[in-house]
TrEMBL record:
Its EC number is 3.4.17.19. This is Metal-dependent carboxypeptidase. GO terms for molecular function: carboxypeptidase activity. The keyword Membrane does not apply. Keywords: Carboxypeptidase, Hydrolase, Metal-binding, Metalloprotease, Protease. It comes from Lutimaribacter marinistellae.
Amino acid sequence: MTAYDQLMAYQRETSALAQIAGRLGWDQETMMPRGAAQQRAEEMAAIEAVLHARRSDPRVGEWLAAADGAEPVQAAQLREIRRAYDRAVKIPAELATRIARVTSEAQGIWAQARSDEDVAGFLPVLTEVVNLRREEGAALAQGGNVYDALVEDYEPETTGEQIAAIFDAMRPRLVELRAAILDRPLPRGLEGSFDAHKQMQLSQVLALAFGYDLARGRIDKAVHPFSSGSGADVRITTRTNEADPFNCFYSTIHEVGHAAYEQGIDGDYALTPLGRGVSMGVHESQSRIYENQLGRSRAFTGWLFERMRETFGAFGIDDPDSFYAAVNRVQNGYIRTEADEVQYNLHIMLRFDLERALMAGDLQTGDLEAAWNDRFASDFGYAVDKPSNGVLQDVHWSVGLFGYFPTYALGNVYAGCLHGALRTAVPDLDAQLSRGDTSAATGWLKEHVQRHGGLYAPREVIARASGMTPSEEPLLTYLEEKFGALYAL
């Protein structure tokens, strides 16, 4: 075997073990007994110790030095392995193990604190998680910017300053659009109660309509919807609220976007660095375009309106146009995952600025709730009413995902670029969506984005697919045109 062959065989074993670790995480959020939390933390720490040892094994460096990557796919595999190896060798094994153990414990503590509205009960473990991530970021940065080093895990080749520049360009137009909309009458919403079992039935219909392969996946419930896995085992979760079925339906479509990306990657890349999404920003471009530009479009909501009437009977809205307005209502709210397209990115900007300050040491966890509440009141014009609607609403910080939040908004930016190219490629898209047929749209995304996996760098894959350098302009134009028409601005 050549050095490249040996390296790839070793890498496939490492990737298989990482998939097992991911399955433990999926189980923890869906089916694990509450009393198993401490044992699961030890299990996660043990498998992380094995993974870290493999990722930082000196043989990987030797194989990289000797491997020949003349072909584009080989060169890309080596690029991704080298990037991961260079990061792994900077992180002490004991630190990697502690992070895995503490973040597993913290997830359960956060869930209980959220249920109890108990910020104080969460702060000790959050402080530990923040300190561990700062330590990790410092080890990776080696004198450079700690937050940038953490962002690299989720959006390679992107810095906090670059993200901040995009957000600074977006904020004024989003704030102006939001203010103009909130001066208009609020469209009528849904009425009545919507059975949770029926919601799950219709969510499966929606998942299938967007191309989710249930032979290689499954749909379960979780407190916080997510997608997990890659290749032949890609699972999603959603949640139900009997007063708000849109929460279930659009969470499902969103997670199917993630899952379709993983299921759509070229099978030859399975269990290799190219066999997963290239970045969380690109991942979010898929979930957001599925959920918003496709799923919340006038054409698709017309089809969904009929499915809703078949499933639930009368629900206070009598025609497709009113239903489209209800799906896209812009109104005050606390929850990021339930936010409309106009306000969603403002929720992300809040989190981005706070977590940058946390990692820089400019903000301490004891001051985080007050900082959140002050910033929320400034940005949205009203006060947070309880911690589960504020600093405790998201799982991300409890599990140490610092640097992850900005990728949601980057995904929206990327989706805006892709949407224009998709509309050009599929000129009768609305006619197809009005029949509940997303196959041309999802097929185009699979061909131009998903199948490549990690072959190209994040911004490159978006540029190749959209024919333009990624920019916030298409997203902002789309939002202004869509909501300008909806609200007669």
